[in-house]
Amino acid sequence: MTEPAATIIVVNYNSGDRLAKCLARLEAQTRRDFAVTVIDNASADGSQEAARGARLSLTLIEAGANLGFAAANNRAAAADG
């Protein structure tokens, strides 16, 4: 399998509806050579279910706490390798 040209990192905290819309827009893209990593900062609004329900192949990282944007972004980038 070919490596993706880019990885899109989505940092999320209690943004379930917006997250679902974001992932739907990514799924609708015609250019598909990208990977998606969603890192969730311990949302309490069902965001994790929105990510799991996406029709897009993605990696979901559940941080377990609100790390803040920068730390969550760094953790997702490190997980991507």
Descriptive tags:
alpha/beta; 3 helices; 81 residues; single chain; 3 strands; three-stranded parallel β-sheet
Characterization of the model:
The protein has a three-stranded parallel sheet with strand order 1-2-3. It has three helices and three strands. It is 37% helix and 22% strand. The chain is globular, with a radius of gyration of 12 Å. It has helices spanning 16-27, 47-52, 69-80, and strands at 6-12, 34-40, 59-62. It has 81 residues and is of the alpha/beta class.
Task: Report a brief summary of the structure.
The protein is 37% helix and 22% strand.
Helix and strand topology:
Layout: E1 6-12, H1 16-27, E2 34-40, H2 47-52, E3 59-62, H3 69-80
Parallel strand pairs: 1-2, 2-3
Task: Let me know the average pLDDT.
Answer: 94
Q: Specify the overall morphology.
A: globular
- Adjacency order of strands in the biggest sheet: 1-2-3
Give the low-confidence spans.
none
Describe the largest sheet.
3 strands, parallel
The N- and C-terminal alpha carbons lie at a distance of 16 Å
Strand content: 15-25%
The share of residues in helices is: 25-40%
Q: Helix tally? A: 3
The radius of gyration computed from the alpha-carbon positions, rounded to a whole number of angstroms, is 12 Å
Protein structure class: alpha/beta
The SSE string, one letter per element, is EHEHEH
Number of strands: 3
